[in-house]
Amino acid sequence: MVNLIYPHFSNYADLKELIDFEGVYKFYKDFEIFPNLLNLIQLKTIFSSLHEILVEDLDVEYILGKEIKDNNKINFNSFMDTLLLTSIHIKKEEDLSPIERILYLIQRMSRSKGVNKSHLKSGKFL
User: Fold this and answer.
1) Is the dihedral of CA 68, 58, 1, 93 positive or negative?
2) Closest CA to 86 of 22, 14, 36
3) How many structural domains does the chain have?
4) Is the peptide bond before 35 cis (omega within 30 degrees of 0)?
5) Domain of residue 49, residue span
6) Per residue in 44-65, pLDDT tens?
């Protein structure tokens, strides 16, 4: 799954491979996750919670840790956690197991316009 998501994540992240809320919002909007599966309050809550957890685990003296804390950003691992937490909120498919929810989310993303938008951002096709 990482190999499927990372190339797209990197098109929304900065050069340090960090992403702020605006980047996550754009990713979710382009890949039709927001507002189709998740509302803005849910997205903000997920992002804020994961940012807080990440900051607690980081050495803020470390350059990247300072960047994450001061500029309200998350790394790729936390971004993947946003997708996992998003899958919990999928209400349209209540009978799905947790794994099936994740697969459903990835399948929806792969069929969205976000794939083409991401390719356009990168200037190359994967």
Assistant:
1) negative
2) 36
3) 1
4) yes
5) 2-121
6) 999 999 999 988 887 655 667 7
